[in-house]
Amino acid sequence: MILIENAKVLSDGKLKSANILIEENKIKAIGDVKDKSDYVINAKELAVIPGLFNSHTHCAMTLFRGYAEDMPLQEWLEKKIWPAEARLNEEIVYWASKLACVEMLKSGTTFFFDMYFFPSATARAVEETGIRACLSSAFFDFFSKDLLEANLKRVEKELNELKNFKVLRAIAPHAVYTVSLEGLKRAMEIAEKEDIFVHFHLAETEKEVIDFRKKNGNGIVKALDEIGFLNQRLISAHCVWLEKEEIELMAKRKVSAVHCPTSNMKLSVGKALNYPEMKKAGLNVLLGTDGTASNNSLDMLREMKVSALLQKFYYGADSFKAVDAFKIATENASKAFGIKAGKVEVGWLADLVLIDLSKIPMNPCHDLIANLVYSSASECIDTVIVDGKIVVENGYFEGEEKILEKFNKIAEKFFGSA
């Protein structure tokens, strides 16, 4: 058991002092509670918040941080990223993922949703670092039936391998410009059979939308609905170039959309996700960093700030508030993934982050959520608890130096051989 003493907890919008008792992997009690615990945290200067959810990542792309800069999306993919990814292997993905897990934990993320290759390598990194994750087996078919069949065989093999790990699973057809409608339909059929999620890129650029309509005669969302692709299993990243009717249809089908503001701006997609319309329609919106090649960070504290600023810039000052940013990084994601985390409440999972209120960015503290979204940084993270276990203490992840050293050797060898 872990006892967090004298912590600051948000209650009815105000900070109040309370003790939090963690038993096994859940919050057992909050208030004037004391117990003979195995470990006691003196949290007099600390505030407790739920762990953050990073709902769209390609975490092994830490390898490509700073590698392909200042390019539009399609050129970035075709000339730099895809050729480099063709040379990846399990060892590289394992170490790149492990570094990503440490980066996320140290900045307050306790869960991430990943789309990448060699997912079992990432699963090893997840279990060794203690973070929580949903991992996807990704595929393309480039409109080739033979390639589709070959990749679906690999996907089924990878999904079976992931059963050996304590992770949620997903199938990840990349996007409509890399996967045929038949491939998308087959992906959803596998998801239904395996009872897993579907991870997907949707309407990221105007070109994607225009090209699809020219080729298929109707819009992407309508076409996806016709093949039974829209349902609550589907978690779609970006969702920038959507019309009002498409947003309403996605909400009706209980799809979740992931806002990736930093990546969208960096890759110059030309528009901002329409959060006001999505909120009005009841569409569940989440938050993600995307990969470090297009962000270049996995820090969800930063992403909350950018999400709020982009929405305000594009749709007006009152269109998106600090509490909206916090909600899409916690409660909304908890709902999408069916995980009882995202709140500091009795009976909920002990996925918690302790914020150091003595740090300069947190002072003064008129509004904890506003400070978290607009001024905090990873330096303000003191302790991170996932599944009832302390994984970051005093801002430090045990063994992080060795992970960084090994990662850098892998990266040097990878780019040196290019």
In short:
By secondary structure, this protein is of the alpha/beta class. The protein has helices spanning 73-85, 90-106, 119-129, 145-162, 181-194, 206-216, 220-226, 244-252, 261-266, 275-281, 300-315, 322-328, 331-337, 368-374, 400-416, and strands at residues 2-11, 14-23, 26-31, 39-42, 46-50, 52-57, 109-116, 132-139, 168-173, 197-202, 234-238, 256-259, 284-287, 352-356, 381-386, 389-392.
Layout of secondary structure:
Blueprint: E1 2-11, E2 14-23, E3 26-31, E4 39-42, E5 46-50, E6 52-57, H1 73-85, H2 90-106, E7 109-116, H3 119-129, E8 132-139, H4 145-162, E9 168-173, H5 181-194, E10 197-202, H6 206-216, H7 220-226, E11 234-238, H8 244-252, E12 256-259, H9 261-266, H10 275-281, E13 284-287, H11 300-315, H12 322-328, H13 331-337, E14 352-356, H14 368-374, E15 381-386, E16 389-392, H15 400-416
Parallel strand pairs: 1-4, 1-5, 6-7, 7-8, 8-9, 9-10, 10-11, 11-12, 12-13
Antiparallel strand pairs: 1-2, 2-3, 5-14, 14-15, 15-16
Helix pairs in contact: 2-3, 2-15, 11-12, 12-14
Task: List the defining traits of the structure above.
TIM Barrel; Urease, subunit C, domain 1; 8-stranded mixed β-sheet; 2 domains; 418 residues; 16 strands; 8-stranded parallel β-sheet; alpha/beta
CATH superfamily heading of the largest domain: Metal-dependent hydrolases
Shape: globular
Mean pLDDT: 96
Number of strands: 16
Q: In what range is the share of β-strand residues? A: 15-25%
Number of helices: 15
Count of folded domains:
2
Helix content: 25-40%
What CATH calls the topology of the largest domain is TIM Barrel
Instruction: Specify the structural class.
Output: alpha/beta
Architecture of the largest domain in CATH?
A: Alpha-Beta Barrel
* Rg over CA atoms: 21 Å
The low-confidence runs, each spanning 5 or more residues with pLDDT under 50, are none
Task: Sketch the major β-sheet.
Answer: 8 strands, mixed
Query: Terminal Cα separation, in Å?
Result: 50 Å
> In the CATH hierarchy, what is the class of the largest domain?
Alpha Beta
